[in-house]
Amino acid sequence: MPHSFGYRARTRYMFARNFREHGPLHLSTYLKTYKVGDIVDIKGNGAVQKGLPHKFYHGKTGIVYNVTKSAVGVIVHKRVGNRYMEKRVNVRIEHVNHSKCRDDFLRRVKENAAAAKAARAKGESIQLKRQPAQPREARLVSTEDNVPTTITAIPYDSNSYL
User: Fold this and answer.
1) Cα–Cα distance between 122 and 156 in angstroms, integer?
2) What value does the CA radius of gyration of the chain take, rounded to a whole number of Å?
3) Neighbours of 153 (CB within 10 A)
4) Residue 90 backbone dihedrals phi, psi, to 5 degrees
5) Contact 62, 101 (CB under 8 A)
6) Could you give the strand order of the β-sheet that contains 71-80, starting from the edge strand earlier in sequence?
7) Residues 78, 88: contact at Cβ < 8 Å?
8) Does pTM top 0.90 for this prediction?
9) In whole angstroms, what is the distance from residue 37 CA to residue 63 CA?
10) Rounded distance, CA 145 to CA 148, Å?
């Protein structure tokens, strides 16, 4: 049989629905609001063939630049050779989700703002930057009632394994 190079070639598992998640889509999929500038993840849903993105964009994250009645336009950066090209992909809303990539950052911004406000009220300075894992503190091992023992390798004896 000839090798096929169709639009959905080699997507048998990529666009397949998950176990026990077949059937019609939830209405919450259609009730989500997308605005220009939102960060979204593109995830093709095999239950809806219309507006399905090309397999390359499955799993990619982009920024919404256009919103229509039933679709959104997403800017995705695609690596082509030695550069990144800005690709504009029009995808139906069944195939996009709000990205959680900024949730941790926005949570830290709120925590830092609250901590800075509390520190300002007390009149003290506070460190807000994340710190890498520091080395462990030094420990002292006492030799009192704990005599050091010298450990050496046991010589190999072929007769002991018979």
Assistant:
1) 68
2) 28
3) 5
4) -100, 120
5) no
6) 83-92, 71-80, 61-67, 39-42, 96-98
7) no
8) no
9) 6
10) 10
Lookup: tokens for 138: 């030094």
CA 11 to chain centre: 21
- The token pair at 79 is 């690596």
Do the beta carbons of residue 115 and residue 128 sit within 8 Å? yes
Residue type, 23: G
d(CA 156, CA 9): 59
SS3 66: strand
pLDDT tens, residue by residue, 20-47: 999 999 999 999 999 999 999 999 999 9
User: CB of 27 within 8 A of CB of 93?
Assistant: no
Chain centroid, CA 71 distance in Å: 23
Cβ neighbours of residue 23 closer than 8 Å, sequence gap 6 or more: 47
pLDDT, one tens digit per residue, over 54-91 is 999 999 999 999 999 999 999 999 999 999 999 999 99
Q: How is residue 122 annotated by DSSP?
A: H
Single-letter amino acid, residue 111: E
